[in-house]
Amino acid sequence: MNTAVINIKTNPETKVKAQAVAKELGFSLSALINGYLKHLVKTKAVHFTTDEKPTKYLIDAIKESKKDIKAGRVSPGFDNAEDALKWLNDPNAKYINGDKV
User: Fold this and answer.
1) Which of 12, 37, 51, 72 has its CA 20 to 30 A from that of 30?
2) Is the pTM of this model over 0.70?
3) Phi (first) and psi of residue 18, to 5 degrees
4) How far apart are CA 28 and CA 35, in angstroms?
């Protein structure tokens, strides 16, 4: 089989991390890059995806938000800006369509 060599420049840390991911998936980095190049030629499309797992920061933020909602430390929903502005000036008051209830 004839092969061609492609030299690319990348950050050393990126290379090491990419090799680790490839190994985790059971591939060599070279095999993954070859597969990607074949897919690129076949589809003429570039696709990038990220892991859909939320980060620890996001998980912590969601937990904090749930606590705030449960404790009532959030604003109500508004149908218009006028009600929202009135609530900001008097958060204990209730407004519906601009009228204090």
Assistant:
1) 51
2) no
3) -65, -40
4) 11
